[in-house]
Amino acid sequence: MKVLLLYPEFPDTFWSFKHALKFVSKKSASPPLGLLTVAAMLPKDWELRLVDFNVAQLTDEDLTWADYVFISAMGIQRASVNETVERCRAAGVKVVAGGPLFTADSESFPNIDHLVLNEAETTLPPFLADLAAGHPKRIYDSIEFPDLTLTPVPRWDLLDMKHYLGINIQYSRGCPFNCDFCNVTALFGHKPRTKTPAQVVAELQLLYDIGFHGQIFFVDDNFIGNKKKLKQEILPALSEWRKDKKSVSFMTEVSINLADDDELMDMMVAAGFNSVFVGIETPNDDSLAECGKGQNRGRNLIENVRRIQARGMQVAAGFIIGFDNDPLSIFEQQIDFIQKSGIVTAMVGLLQAPRGTELYSRLEKEGRLLGDSSGDNTDYSMNFIPKMNLDALQTGYQRVLNEIYSPHGYYARVRTFLRDFNPSPDIKSPLTSMEVAALFRSIYLLGITGVGRMEYWRLFFWALFRRPKLFPMAITMSVYGHHFRQVYELYVCRPQLKVTK
Length: 501
Fold this sequence. Notes:
This protein is an alpha/beta fold. The protein has helices at residues 18-21, 33-41, 60-65, 78-91, 100-104, 120-133, 184-188, 197-209, 227-241, 262-271, 285-290, 301-311, 330-341, 358-365, 390-405, 407-420, 433-445, 453-466, 471-492, and strands at residues 2-7, 47-52, 68-72, 94-98, 114-116, 139-140, 167-169, 172-173, 193-194, 215-218, 249-254, 273-281, 314-321, 346-350, 381-382, 498-499. The strands form four sheets. A six-stranded parallel sheet has the order 2-1-3-4-5-6, with helices on both faces. A six-stranded parallel sheet has the order 7-10-11-12-13-14. Strands 8-9 form a two-stranded antiparallel sheet.
């Protein structure tokens, strides 16, 4: 059996980092972890070929070669999925699809031959058995949450690593919280399930052995969902493995209650974590109550962020505008919070209601739901009728983006972060070859031809003389700022907020 594994294209978004990747001659931020994991579950005697549309093009020869096409995708890749499925049908190749997009919205894909939904550890084996017997069904799904000790090491050998800036791996699935706009618990449940330390170390060692020695992103929905296991099992194992591999660093997603646990923060830093993404969402308490974000309430969120950054981990964060309880002052509140907190990577988006969430169900009952979310909450669209006047929402949202990603606002926030950040001793000041390349490109594109060149040079010399150890980080953040401005300008230039139907 010849199987062609296809990963559809990501559009130009906040998290694509496409404009930043050009500075380091990379094509994609990370490879398709889910598809590579599925590849490891397929029969060993099958021939496999991977085409990641973000780094390569699908050819007619690829389709002629294949007996089956396997596609995995998220909601934001829908447009590329539709084009790809039509091309496969025209070539007469059967398509097997799975992943979050198809699990949440399988009825929108009547032209796909086989849908293997939910988690592959549960639904892929019966499909493969039926395929071998010659009578595969069209849909395979399950309400079971599988044991992750069944999950194999991804097929990294299918990749051309040189195209990717970083690598993703997974330790756990599921989240103990219940934010009404998030579909994580619908997909993966409330109880975090984990791999064993031996599994994680085996994945890391294989990556290291094949030559990847950079930053690794744990894509867990909430890495600290089970703090006891973290402290007793995985963090000690990571620290031990990394003793002679200091070039490897980690980042992940966590909830804000990480700030309550000094021991856990110290253990994460010792294990190599230098960055975390936190869902802040909003500084407005009524809106936090509305969306069920109880873990963020009753806190000094700015102080929590500073505690994490002072401990040695940069905080990136998500923010949402468009809650029913958002007052007209929310725009100023968001700007003030983001600037004071020193959160450099601040993803500010409009509220969307994905399928499978409590928010989607509530809005549907209220008659306010207008269609499916785009999968990109920074693309200036909403899939429901908001309570706030649309003109006020549009004007306010534009103002937030213009303030925090203007050269003045952005570079000021970088300096705030660098002043507060207490880096791990692992962080060295000499630039890597990739960072040197980015430095020279940034000097030309940001310091000579860029619209914010004065702010760039102000940060350049401030970091060089005030925080020389963090100078490479300052340059990296300058490059990221360029990407964020490019993405937001693409959407802010649109004449009006979109309400999708």
